[in-house]
Amino acid sequence: MELTIFILRLAVYILAFPMYLLNFLGLWSWICKKWFPYFLVRFSVMYNEQMASKKRELFSNLQEFAGPSGKLSLLEVGCGTGTNFKFYPPGCRVTCIDPNPNFEKFLIKSIAENRHLQFERFVVAAGENMHQVADGSVDVVVCTLVLCSVENQEQILREVCRVLRPVSERVRNLSYMQKLVHTQEYLLSSVCNSTNWK
Ligand SMILES: C[S@@+](CC[C@H](N)C(=O)[O-])C[C@H]1O[C@@H](n2cnc3c(N)ncnc32)[C@H](O)[C@@H]1O
């Protein structure tokens, strides 16, 4: 038994060695950032098929949060390839934030496929520091499959509150909680539950 465990451990060490080496050389993070978008674009197709009805329901009332102009200003934090775009209402003004610049070319493709949206800009930044987005400048913040893997969830949520358009505190909390509960319930589920990863 001990010999089996030893051999299994050795196999794991050998398999993981290239990753440790690349990490030691400072290349692992670069490789992940480069290739993750290619993985995500494929994964998103399958995921969207499975979650289409839930996403439609989750995003169905977005237009209700539009400001006095009637135009909905939406910020997507950790936008990835723009997989949520097709669920946003027509005319919606979309700003995207993601710390991985390699998503840009995938975003451009998603924008071309979703002509019903008005794309504003892609900001390369982490959600913990979105200083490029002005205080109270967006009606809605969308964040799916992101919070489970970030460094500082509280800081991101503080930033989310900062950039959201100030309406009455009651409405702000309501809309925020509604989105959070829906997101947790429908999208994060157990796959993306931070407690499962620790
Ligand atoms: C699993 S993908 C989800 C992408 C997209 N939201 C979706 O639902 O398909 C996680 C995304 O979060 C981004 N991300 C990672 N850390 C982040 C952070 N600190 N702030 C904002 N986005 C982050 C990643 O670059 C990646 O695009």
From TrEMBL:
<dbReference type="InterPro" id="IPR029063">
    <property type="entry name" value="SAM-dependent_MTases_sf"/>
</dbReference>
<dbReference type="InterPro" id="IPR052356">
    <property type="entry name" value="Thiol_S-MT"/>
</dbReference>
<dbReference type="GO" id="GO:0005811">
    <property type="term" value="C:lipid droplet"/>
</dbReference>
<protein>
    <submittedName>
        <fullName>Thiol methyltransferase 1A</fullName>
    </submittedName>
</protein>
<dbReference type="GO" id="GO:0005783">
    <property type="term" value="C:endoplasmic reticulum"/>
</dbReference>
<keyword id="KW-1133">Transmembrane helix</keyword>
<feature type="transmembrane region" description="Helical">
    <location>
        <begin position="6"/>
        <end position="32"/>
    </location>
</feature>
<dbReference type="GO" id="GO:0001649">
    <property type="term" value="P:osteoblast differentiation"/>
</dbReference>
<dbReference type="Pfam" id="PF08241">
    <property type="entry name" value="Methyltransf_11"/>
</dbReference>
<dbReference type="GO" id="GO:0180035">
    <property type="term" value="P:lncRNA processing"/>
</dbReference>
<keyword id="KW-0812">Transmembrane</keyword>
<dbReference type="GO" id="GO:0001734">
    <property type="term" value="F:mRNA m(6)A methyltransferase activity"/>
</dbReference>
<feature type="domain" description="Methyltransferase type 11">
    <location>
        <begin position="75"/>
        <end position="166"/>
    </location>
</feature>
<dbReference type="GO" id="GO:0042476">
    <property type="term" value="P:odontogenesis"/>
</dbReference>
<keyword id="KW-0472">Membrane</keyword>
<dbReference type="InterPro" id="IPR013216">
    <property type="entry name" value="Methyltransf_11"/>
</dbReference>
<dbReference type="GO" id="GO:0018708">
    <property type="term" value="F:thiol S-methyltransferase activity"/>
</dbReference>
